[in-house]
Amino acid sequence: MSRCDPLATAIPPMKDLTTENITENVHIVNSQCRDPRLRYLHERIVTHLHDFCRETRLSTEEWQAGIQFLTEIGQISDDLRHEMILLSDTLGVSLLVDSINHPRREPATEGTVLGPFHTHDAKEKDNGAVLHSDPDATPLLVICSVKDTEGDPISDVKIDVWEGDSKGFYDVQDPNRTGPDGRGVLHSDKEGRFFFKAIVPVPYPIPMDGPVGGMLRRLGRHPNRPGHVHFMLDKPGYDLLITALYPRGDPYETSDPVFGVKESLIVDLSEVTDPAMASQYNVEMGTPLLTYDFVLLTDQQARDLRKQKAVEEMQKQNRDVVWHNGLPVPATGVQ
Hints:
Blueprint: H1 22-30, H2 36-56, H3 60-76, H4 83-90, H5 93-101, E1 139-148, E2 158-162, E3 183-187, E4 193-199, E5 204-205, H6 211-219, E6 224-225, E7 229-234, E8 241-247, E9 266-267, E10 270-271, H7 275-281, E11 288-296, H8 299-316, E12 321-324, E13 327-330
Parallel strand pairs: 1-11, 8-9
Antiparallel strand pairs: 1-4, 2-3, 2-7, 5-6, 7-8, 10-11, 12-13
Helix pairs in contact: 1-2
GO biological process, one term: catechol-containing compound metabolic process
Organism: Penicillium decumbens
Cofactor: Fe(3+)
C-alpha cells in the first residue's frame, strides 16, 4: 500500500526546470492553495527569494551559511530569549510591520518595536508603584495620560511597562531571575491618568552572544540601543499601541540598531521642583520627571487608515485587489 497522500485536485503539469522558469513552476504547485491571502503571500515571497538568488548569483556556500544561521537562531531561542525577534528588529522588519499594521495619524501616538524582552509575567500594580528593586539606579517619576483623538480621557486602559536596570540589563537576562523586576501592569484612572516610579533609562547593547550578534559584527554595526522605557497600551475598542519613550540627548539616539527611535517619541526629562508635587507622589525634590500624553486611535479609525494605506500601495503597484479578511489579495485568479 502506498504511503503517499492522494491528490486532492489535478495539479497543472510543471515544465522542464531551469533557472529561468523555476519560479513559475513553484507558483504552479502553490496555486492549489485554497486560501487566497496565503496563496498571495507565498507567490510574492517565492518571487522575491528567487529574484534575490538570481540577482546576486547566490553561491551554494552562502545559501548553506544562511540556513545554518537561521538554524542557530532557533536553537538559541527559548521562552525568555527571542533571538528571531532580535533578527527581525535589527533588519528593520519589526518596525516596518508595526507601521503597516498600526498606522498612525495626528494626534495619535506613534508605535515602535516590541523588542525581545517583553514577558507575560509582569504583576498588576497600583498607580504610584515602584517598578524596580535596583538600588544603584536614579529614580524617575513617570506621569502620563491616555486620551482619544478628540482629547477625551480613556479610563481603564491596561498599560504594560518594562525597562532595563541601571546597568542596561533586563530582568530576563539575569540567570538567577526568580520573577519579574523593572516591569508592571497598570491601569489608567477615570481621568485617563497613570503614574509610577521607574528609573532613568540608560543605553545598553542588545545581546551579542548569539547569531544576530555575529551578523552585526560582520556588518560593522554597533549594538547599542538608546535608553528608553517600553509601553504597551491596550483596551477593547482601541488599536493596540506598542511604543517606547526615549530621553533626549542619548548618544545612540540617531543610530538605534533596531530602528525604534522616532522623533515624536523623544522626550525631555524635567525635575520635580514643586514641594506639593513631591509630597503628592512621595518623591524627593529634584527627582527626574517624565511626562507624556498618549493618544489612541479607535479600532475603526485604525482599520480605515490601514485600508487607505493599503489601497494607496496597491495603486502604486498597479494592482487590482479584493479584500480577504481585511487584507488585500490580487483580484485576478481569486478562487
